[in-house]
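#struct-pred
JK: can someone run the complex with adenosine-5'-triphosphate? inputs below
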Amino acid sequence: MSEITLHIGIDNHDTPQGGCTTHFSILLIRKLLQKGVEFIDYPNLIRLNPNIPWKTRGNGAVVLRFRVIEKQLEDLLELIRNESEAYTQISRKTKYRQPGIAVFVGNNIPNEYRWLYKKALTDVVTLDIALKIAEKTQTIILSNKQNRGLIGALSAIGGLIDYQEDYTFELLAYRIIENMGKRERLVDELSVKRVELKYKGYLFSNYDFENDRMVITPHGPDPVLLGLRGDKPDILVKAFGEIKVFEPIDFWCVFRTNQATDAHLIKRNISTLRPYQTGLIEGEVLSKPKPEPGGHIRIYIKDSTGVIPVYFYEPTKKLREIALKLIPGDYVRIGGSVRPPSSTHPKISFNAEKLEVIKLNRYIEHNPKCPQCGKTMKSAGKDKGYKCPRCGYYDPNARKILVRIERSLKEGIYTPPISSMHHLTKPLSRYGRENNGKPFILINEWCSFKLTGE
Ligand code: ATP
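RT: done, structure tokens with the ligand placed:
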């Protein structure tokens, strides 16, 4: 019997009653497993452009990739459509919720999807473009074609499809229905700290040691109890078993994801930056850092194509402290996103989320001292040398002198504290540990349904 491969892209399945796209996806996985499908990958949790104004939280979409007997296709499409409708029905009246769900059938994902994914990760995509690609690739749309959620659902299909891109894992555990809506999650902080230390090098961004608090529990009314991040799925499952949880867990699942990889930080020239894009700019610091109301820091950066104001906002905490130590002439690389013009900032600016100090300027220029009286001389005009304001001494050949200065800043990469990092930002602990080019192993027990044989 011939088999086919399905790739289901899902987005915008959050509901005001506390549902979310990953929660729906796992419920769907349960139904699919009952139908005997064979997963070829972990469910993919694909984060898209974190700078998109329409996002509810972290702009995440999900893709399920599995094989099934060809003659089951119609049956499965019906099941997926019904499940999606039932889950999102409750929020139909809310105009902002526009669920998207689409199915691409085939072993090889067309290049158009790779392009769409990169675009949605780093820029703004219109529904029109996403639908054109769906049509060209004969993708089956199961939701309303006008729904904005289709942008995320279709774009995610092209993410993480070969091992050349870096990837990580997240184990998400969910609350029982009775506890949804309660803000406090009953998870023991100390046990989280312990596992983060015990599995150092395999887990990351679960405990914020700088601020001494765990960062695995969300605070909203969504169904997620906790999310444990790491580089190896088997270690995630083991570590999860060692975390003390004092409320019932409905189910859990390991996702493969582009989180913590910097996938959105593609190199860009300053002159090409457009509103809402993400990217990495590189250039010279032009101005002294200027503190602004609200605790933000502004500097100007120049590359060979242009100049842009870069803001280090208050929530970036220590990154802002580092930015304050920059001086003109420093050479830096900055990851972040483009803020559109507004009434307070009439031109585009760049919001920094990561800073690499590539080369520190260790010299500053001073006016020469007067050889007669020792006073600092003043310029006599462009290329006209220097004159002493006290004794009147004039030297037409005098030039500025370079003075070496001590810097308290070091060359290197700087990030905000993990509690204020975007999902996509690569934390320092992952540098040198990337999974690029490494195939993953699909462990047997990647979700709790598989364990119980439900
Ligand atoms: P949840 O976790 O509940 O899914 P979220 O933060 O992921 O919340 P969504 O509710 O999915 O946010 O909303 C994001 C919306 O933005 C979706 O409709 C998605 O299709 C759309 N979107 C995502 N990326 C882009 C992009 N690059 N350009 C245009 N629209 C996008």
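RT: quick notes.
DSSP finds nine helices and 23 strands in the chain.
The CA atoms of residues 167 and 412 lie 23 Å apart.
JK: thanks, will look after standup
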